[in-house]
Design brief:
Helices cover about 30% and strands about 15% of the residues. The protein is of the alpha+beta class. A seven-stranded mixed barrel has the order 1-2-3-4-5-7-6. It has a five-stranded antiparallel β-sheet with strand order 9-10-8-11-12.
Length: about 500
C-alpha cells in the first residue's frame, strides 16, 4: 500500500481548511456597519486601543447581573382603582422573569393613583423581584413614597401612549433599604429612577460613571443598576436605578455641621438655573448667586440659617474669584485641581450641553478644598443633542451651548490646558476599558431594550421635545445605537485632543 506523500498531505490539509472556512462563512450573519452623521476627520488622528483583551475568565462588569431561572411571571396588580382616577391599561404582558438579566421593580401607588406631581410624594409600595445572585431568591415588598422628577423632561399623557410620558421618578423608602443587587450594604431611603427616554442606548450615564470610577479622582460617583419598571401593572420599560446625590457616609461623605465660619464650613451645592423654583426655595437660604452669573447655586446640604448660607457663599465666592483670576498658586490653595481636570474631561468628552446650566455639583468637606463631584445627567451628551452631534470643537467655545464660567476661564490658562492634555494621555487606556465594558453591558441589555422599544417606539425617532433641536442621526435598532455611541466617543476623544492642541497654538 502506498502511503500519503508529503505533497498530497499538504494538499488535503489545505482543502479541509478551505471547506471549514466556507462552512463558517455561510453560518454567520454579516451585519452592515453603522455609519455616523459626523464630518470626516481632517487630521488622520484616531484613538488606538491600548488596553489588552481581557482573559476569558475575567469577571463581567459589576453592573451586569446574571439571568434568573425562576420561570415565574410578574404577578398582576389586583387592587381596583377608585372611580375618580384614570388608570392606564397594561400595554404588554409582563415578560417572564426567567428571561430577564436585570431586576424588575413594581410600584403600586395607593388607590393606583397617577403620578402627576414633581413636588408632592404619594404613598406606594415597591416590590423588588430579585435576580439569581440574591440570597433569598424571593421577592420583597416595601412601603415607600414616589413622585415624578425632571423639569423640561417631565410630560404627562393620560393613556401613556406618548414616549415623552416615560418619566423619571424619585422614590423615598419608609425605611432604609438596599436596592442595588451588587451593593447589599448600601441601605438608604432616597433613590432615583432615570427614564433614559432621551438616550435609547441607556448607556450614556453609565459610560461617564464607569470612566469616572476608573479615573479615580472625583470624591463621589453615583452607583446604579438597570431595572425594568412596572407602575400599577403597566410596563414602563428600561430604567436606571441610581443613588440620590446627597450627603451621607455612603454617598457624598463630608462634614456639613452647622458653621458660620467661611474657612471651615462644609457643603454640597448644585449649579442649576431652576434652583429658584424648587419647593420652599428662598434666595439667601436655599440658593444664592455669585457675581457675573445669573444661575443659582442650590444648597443640597443641611443648612438651616441665613448665617450658615452666608458662610457657604463667602467661601465659594473666594474660590470663584481665584478660578477666574487664573492664578494657579492661589487656586491650588483652595481647590482640588485633579477633580477640576477630570470633570472638565468628562464634560468635554461627552459634549454635554447642560454643563453650564444644571447638574453641576461641588462639595467641600469642613476646612478642606473645593472639589467637583457627582457627574450627572448625560442623556443629551455623546452626539444625542443636535448642538453636539458633531464630535468636533469644544463646549467651552460656547458653540450653541452655555459653557460653565469656571471652565471657560480655565481654558484661557495655558497651564490648565496642558494639565488636561497630560491627563488625557493617562486615561486613554481607561476609556478603552470603559468602551469595552459598555459593549459587554449592551449585549446583556439588548432584550430589555427591545421590550422598551416595543412599549415606546423609541428607535428611529427624534427624542427631545424641542422641534428645532433634534438629534440628526437615524438609528433603527439597539445595536445601531450602541455602535454609534462607542464609535462617536472614540472619534471624540481624538478630536478633543486636536482641539485642545489648537488652543495651545
Amino acid at each position: 500500500m502506498k502511503y500519503f506523500t508529503p505533497r498530497y498531505g499538504r494538499f488535503l490539509g489545505w482543502a479541509l481548511l478551505l471547506c471549514g472556512l466556507l462552512l463558517w462563512t455561510v453560518g454567520c450573519q454579516v451585519r452592515p456597519p453603522v455609519t455616523m452623521d459626523v464630518p470626516p476627520a481632517d487630521t488622520g488622528t484616531s484613538l488606538s486601543p491600548e488596553a489588552s483583551d481581557p482573559p476569558e475568565d475575567t469577571a463581567p462588569p459589576p453592573h451586569i447581573l446574571p439571568p434568573t431561572d425562576t420561570g415565574t411571571s410578574l404577578p398582576p396588580e389586583t387592587s381596583p382603582p377608585p372611580e375618580d382616577t384614570v388608570t392606564p391599561p397594561p400595554t404588554l404582558p409582563p415578560p417572564s422573569l426567567s428571561a430577564l438579566p436585570i431586576p424588575v421593580l413594581s410600584v403600586t401607588t395607593e388607590g393606583q393613583a397617577l403620578i402627576l406631581s414633581r413636588l408632592q410624594y404619594i404613598e406606594a409600595t415597591l416590590t423588588v423581584h430579585p435576580t439569581a445572585d440574591t440570597v433569598s431568591g424571593e421577592s420583597i415588598t416595601l412601603p415607600c413614597a414616589i413622585r415624578a422628577r425632571g423639569h423640561s423632561s417631565f410630560h404627562y399623557c393620560e393613556d401613556f401612549t406618548d414616549y415623552k410620558s416615560k418619566n423619571s421618578y424619585r422614590i423615598k423608602m419608609e425605611e432604609s433599604a438596599a436596592l442595588l443587587p451588587h451593593k447589599p450594604g448600601d441601605k438608604d431611603r432616597d433613590w432615583v429612577l432615570i427614564s433614559c427616554k432621551n438616550d435609547a442606548s441607556a448607556l450614556r450615564n453609565h459610560l461617564v460613571w464607569d470612566l469616572a470610577r476608573r479615573m479615580d479622582s472625583l470624591p463621589y460617583v453615583t452607583d446604579y443598576t438597570w431595572v425594568e419598571l412596572y407602575i400599577n401593572g403597566d410596563y414602563r420599560g428600561l430604567y436606571l436605578l441610581t443613588e440620590q446625590i446627597e450627603v451621607d457616609g455612603d454617598r457624598v461623605d463630608i462634614d456639613e455641621s452647622a458653621c458660620t465660619d467661611p474657612a471651615q464650613v462644609g457643603y454640597l451645592l448644585e449649579y442649576d438655573f431652576r434652583g429658584d423654583i424648587e419647593t420652599n426655595a428662598r434666595e439667601g437660604l436655599t440658593y444664592f448667586y455669585l457675581p457675573g452669573t445669573d444661575i443659582e447655586w442650590v444648597i443640597k446640604s443641611e443648612v438651616y440659617t441665613e448665617a450658615e448660607t452666608a458662610a457657604v457663599r463667602a467661601h465659594l465666592l473666594t474660590c470663584h474669584e481665584a478660578i477666574l483670576s487664573g492664578d494657579r498658586v492661589r487656586m491650588e490653595e483652595l481647590i482640588d485641581l485633579p477633580s477640576f481636570v477630570d470633570m472638565f474631561i468628562l464634560q468635554e468628552l461627552s459634549k454635554n450641553p447642560d454643563v453650564g446650566t444644571s447638574s453641576f455639583f461641588v462639595q467641600r468637606d469642613a476646612g478642606g478644598k473645593l472639589c467637583l463631584t457627582a457627574p450627572w445627567d448625560f442623556d443629551f451628551g455623546f452626539g444625542t443633542y443636535s448642538t453636539g452631534v458633531s464630535n468636533l470643537g469644544l463646549v467651552t467655545s460656547g458653540d450653541k451651548v452655555s459653557p460653565h464660567p469656571w471652565f471657560a476661564a480655565l481654558m484661557g490658562q495655558k497651564w490648565f490646558v496642558e494639565e488636561v492634555l497630560s491627563r488625557m494621555a493617562e486615561i486613554r487606556p481607561f476609556l478603552e476599558e470603559t468602551l469595552t465594558a459598555t459593549e459587554s453591558v449592551a449585549a446583556v441589555l439588548t432584550p430589555a431594550s427591545d421590550r422598551n422599544h416595543n412599549r415606546w417606539g423609541i428607535y428611529g425617532i427624534k427624542y427631545i421635545k424641542f422641534v428645532n433641536d433634534q438629534v440628526s442621526v437615524d438609528l433603527q435598532s439597539y445595536e445601531e445605537h450602541v455602535a454609534f455611541l462607542t464609535q462617536w466617543t472614540r472619534l471624540r476623544f481624538a478630536r478633543m485632543e486636536q482641539a485642545l492642541r489648537q488652543v495651545l497654538g
